[in-house]
Amino acid sequence: MISTAPKEILLHIAKSLDDERAAGNIRSPLHDILITVKENICTDKSLGIETTCGSCALIGYFPQRNTPIIDHLLKAGMTVTGKANLSEMSGWKGFGITTGWPPVGGQTQSPCIFGGLAEGEKLLGQTALVGSSSGSASGVAAGFAPLAVATEIDGSITQPANRAALFGIKVTVGRASIEGTAPWSALTDSVGGMAKSAQDLADLVDVILGTNTTSTSNTSWQGQTIGFVDSVLITQQREASMDTKKKLIEHGATLHENVSLTSMDEFQVDSNDALDQLWNHGYAKAWEKFLENFPSSSMKSIADIVNSTNSMQRLPCLRSIQASNCWKESALEDKTSEKKYAKGVSSVREAAKTNGIDKSIPLFSLDVIVGPMDDRIPTIAAAAGYPVGTVPLGYSQTNGRPFGISVVALANEEHKILQFMTARDELIPSCLTPPPPPQLMNWNAPEQSNLLAQLSSQETNALRQPPKVVMAKRG
After folding, report:
1. Domain, as residue range, for 97
2. Is residue 86 included in any domain, yes or no?
3. pLDDT band per the 50, 70, 90 thresholds, residue 322
4. Which end of the chain lies in a sparser environment, N or C, as judged by fewer CB atoms within 10 Å?
5. Other CB atoms within 10 A of residue 475 CB
6. What is the domain count for the chain?
7. Whole-angstrom Cα distance, residue 250 to residue 99?
């Protein structure tokens, strides 16, 4: 957690919600349930928690209003306990930054992986947290709250949830408002949630979408048609996957094996990743819009944050010079024309949808497509703009690292993913029992200890001073 709401605010909210329940007014199935929020989602001053995006550049400033998704949570009677750690600025800073590390919150650790994050770990390594919403996943897994809401562009929710033995989902791009969330690209940005229980996640998706139809009482695979993507798996994961297939058949599902999806090679343009180029376009303008949420801040653009006089203070790096602000700088230098951007979007959508998911689902009359989470399936779903979820399968015998499967459906068909999840939760609950003992490890990061020394005295004091909080006036 980067920050927690002040005790007096939480007690005030809890008493108000308890009084409502006693009077017979229950707002939703999640009335009076605690939830954490990713640190890149704006919350106003009444909740007493900042929105820094993990960056020193936004310390000490409160957004002027909540995002729509926060208003949905509060309307449903949920209590926001605090902000979860994340990769700085949702990971869009520079190549080489460790996932789950911001200068404000420090390195996120997994409560499941024995020994914690290995120094110098690769992006998809055995101890890596993988995505920018790693703090949200670790927080739920460790018991800070039963639910978390976060954002995803490409695996940011689903990959960390997978590494924390959680159910996670990113909803269809464009179906839920992303206003007031730190942007990457409207092409693939969306919101979603994480939970230990599939039914809890279904209830949360209802709140996120503002509907009463997504939560499902159908906890059966009976009648579902499921396609499995063939992929290379290590022995233990392959055995767990085979067991799941066996259970699916036993409980009435129809299976199709070796379903084909788009190859990642189809996302290459001139030997470069097409998605990276598309994400880069418009990023600087999107951040100008986002920073309007902080009217009292002097930071009005990416150019203000990345400049020759304060870049090391505002955006300090944990690792070597290679872990720079290169992605931020390349966003400022982007010269892509709107015509070229539109052509790139069309090409990516065609590869992911027309030649991928849209081709396979009707071919076999599938409800969902399932594959290993450690594959690039979330990327294909992101390129298509489709919902994607993750379902826990088991734990590595080597270091306790959880592993699971990804589940993809067509646009606006989150209910099919959630049906698959709730059936898995009800029919095979034993996979959710972790090997003893789960551990929260203190990561030894000597280079991080010198971070404050790099900052000016004024910024150091700002880091150390708690924010002034105004109590919420609630009727």
Report:
1. 3-464
2. yes
3. very low
4. C
5. 3
6. 1
7. 39
